[in-house]
Amino acid sequence: MPTVLTRPRRDVDIPPLLDILAMQQAETQYPFHWPPDLGPERFLRRPSEIEAWVAELDGDVVGHVAIQSVTEDELGRMWAAAHGVPITQLRCVSVLYADRRVVRRGIGSALLARATERALSDGGAPVLDVVAGHLDAVSLYLTRGWHEVGRVRPDWLPPTEEPVRAMILPRPGTAAPQPQ
Predict the structure, then answer these.
(1) 150 falls within a domain
(2) What's the domain count of the chain?
(3) What's the order of all strands across the beta sheet hosting 125-130?
(4) CA 31 to CA 53: how far, in whole Å?
(5) What is the mean pLDDT of residues 111-139?
(6) Which of 124, 167, 165, 129 is nearest to 145 (CA)?
(7) Which end of the chain is more exposed for a tag (fewer CB within 10 A), N or C?
(8) Residue 68 sits in a domain of what CATH number?
(9) Could you read off the pLDDT of 48-87 as tens digits, one per residue?
(10) Predicted model pTM
(11) What is the dihedral of CA 139, 140, 146, 150, to 10 degrees?
């Protein structure tokens, strides 16, 4: 089985990444609104982005992840309190998705590992949010040591959905948060 490679995202990667995002959206409901309110490219490349990567399999781009800075809002305050750090130290793993045509190949795991490594590299505190009904994603995070620290209902979430799970990855040498 070919190895999944991760590397920094380049401008040339944007068209295939947008195609993958559009193809998987009907099945995964990620993102819930399609096309996203600000457009697919602004969903992918956000002003709060610190760094982004792609996954490649046999030379083809097959997935994406980014690290974002976090704003002073309900979710940011929840994460900061759970980690015991200022909001400016939080690093949000976001826009993580993979091509559904090559599932179970370790793409999500490789991207999550790359983003987590980067989040921790400058003393950052890794955080993310995940739609409660996205069970594959929830399972991935839980099996990689992430902990749920609360739930929130962002504006973009349909009222029929459970609140979004706010999660943190405890930093090395820190205690895991107590279950909510």
Answers:
(1) yes
(2) 1
(3) 5-8, 49-57, 60-68, 90-98, 125-130, 164-168, 147-152
(4) 18
(5) 94
(6) 167
(7) N
(8) 3.40.630.30
(9) 999 999 999 999 999 999 999 999 999 999 999 999 999 9
(10) 0.92
(11) -50
